[in-house]
Please model this.
Amino acid sequence: MQAYKFNTKISKSGIISLPQESDLFDREVEIIVIPKTGKETIPAGYMTLEEFRTESKISLTKILNEHGIY
Model:
């Protein structure tokens, strides 16, 4: 069984929109709804986007410095 995960918003009238060109169109599905809490939890061993940006910038700067480019 193929699982799909995407973020969407349920409209005031209860309609759930799927991404464009979904291969789920015209198929029966089982839906599990998990309300967003506003704070996403990051799994152990993973970085937040901001942490990744900071670490990659530091790493790139270090590499460029080692080669006398920056």
Notes: The mean pLDDT is 82. Residues 2 and 24 are 11 Å apart (CA to CA). Residues 49-66 form the longest helix (18 residues). DSSP finds one helix and no strands in the chain.
